[in-house]
């Protein structure tokens, strides 16, 4: 594994896993959220985002965390491995609640200096609410990844699909080599 993409629905733990793997392998960790978000929660224009991703993935070894469809044609063909965190809705939703509360309480600085606040999430059915996003995209992403990963153009990818956090932890503890130098 030289170029790994960690995918999964929002709040599955993509960034956390990618950071762990990158630290273990001593390779670059690329979080697509860092490249996508601008100050004040503005999305980078697609051409800017694509350029950033192209530059970030130009090296020989990396681990990418993220799902953005507008750069999948850049990241997935260059990758050799996809790690899919395909956890249940209950796992993902509970992680989202805990993470969101922690971020709000501690005023954690996120991508491009952004900070989550309670008002973003209180309008549960608004487009900006992470609660709404998790509810409306969980099953959709599972279907999307299943279909895309079965395409011939992605046949070169080794796909590691974990449906429970315990499976992932067993794999991580098995002594697996993330990259070969």
What structural class results from the helix and strand content?
alpha/beta
Mean pLDDT, nearest integer?
Answer: 91
CATH class: Alpha Beta
Uncertain segments: none
Rough outline: globular
Tell me how many strands there are.
7
CATH topology, what is it called?
Rossmann fold
Supply Rg.
Answer: 16 Å
Return the CATH architecture: 3-Layer(aba) Sandwich
So, the CATH homologous superfamily?
Answer: P-loop containing nucleotide triphosphate hydrolases
Helix content: 40-55%
Please write the string of helix (H) and strand (E) elements: EHEHEEHEHEHHHEH
Give the N-to-C terminal Cα separation.
10 Å
Number of helices: 8
Describe this structure in words.
The chain has one domain: 3-Layer(aba) Sandwich (Rossmann fold). 48% of the residues lie in helices and 15% in strands. The chain has eight helices and seven strands. Helix 5 (89-106) crosses helix 7. The longest helix has 20 residues, at 130-149. The model has no long low-confidence stretch (mean pLDDT 91).
Notable features of this structure?
8 helices, single chain, globular, two-stranded antiparallel ribbon, 181 residues
Topology:
Blueprint (H helix, E strand, L loop, with lengths): L2 E6 L5 H12 L2 E4 H5 E2 L3 E2 L2 H11 L5 E4 L6 H7 L2 E5 L3 H18 L11 H5 L7 H20 L8 E5 L2 H8 L9
Parallel strand pairs: 1-5, 1-6, 2-5, 6-7
Antiparallel strand pairs: 3-4
Provide a brief overview of the structure.
This protein has 8 helices and 7 strands. It is an alpha/beta fold.
